[in-house]
Design brief:
Length: 151
């Protein structure tokens, strides 16, 4: 029998449960391997913080995805076997300020010191501006579709 090893676990030695599934966990309790009764499987790996950094499953295309995180646990990069990727940038308060993907789509955002979104713009040409008053209450909104609201 061929040995199948994933993250140090010999998959051929995982016992099958009453539902015909094989499941393995890492030392932190994260599921790293799952196989159903039909033999379809999923594999995962995690960083030291418990964030999923790799995922793969046994569909006809052998799909996989990889993720990278910043020190706050925000996804900053993601790519997969479908040649798709995306990048995320965050400000020091963990607000998403920029997004870009392999399809050429992007988004930009700006925030107040209280984390209220004041500006949004995307590659489709849409934009919006929002103003807030002293108590973080929205006082004005307008967007590229011609919508305007005063509160």
């Amino acid at each position: 029998m061929e040995k199948k090893i994933w993250l140090g676990v010999d998959i051929s030695k995982i016992k099958t449960n009453s539902d015909g599934e094989k499941i393995a966990y890492n030392s932190k309790g994260d599921k790293i391997y799952y196989e159903d009764a039909q033999g379809d499987w999923e594999k995962c790996d995690y960083d030291e913080e418990g964030n999923e950094i790799y995922f793969e499953y046994s569909n006809s295309k052998k799909y996989w995805s990889k993720k990278e995180y910043d020190e706050h646990g925000n996804v900053i990069y993601h790519e997969d076997s479908n040649d798709f990727w995306e990048k995320h940038d965050y400000d020091q308060r963990n607000n998403l300020i920029y997004y870009e993907d392999s399809n050429g789509y992007w988004e930009k955002r700006e925030y107040t010191k209280n984390n209220n979104n004041t500006y949004y713009e995307d590659s489709d040409g849409y934009w919006s501006r929002t103003k807030y008053g002293k108590r973080n209450k929205k006082i004005h909104f307008e967007d590229s579709d011609g919508n305007k609201e005063v509160y």
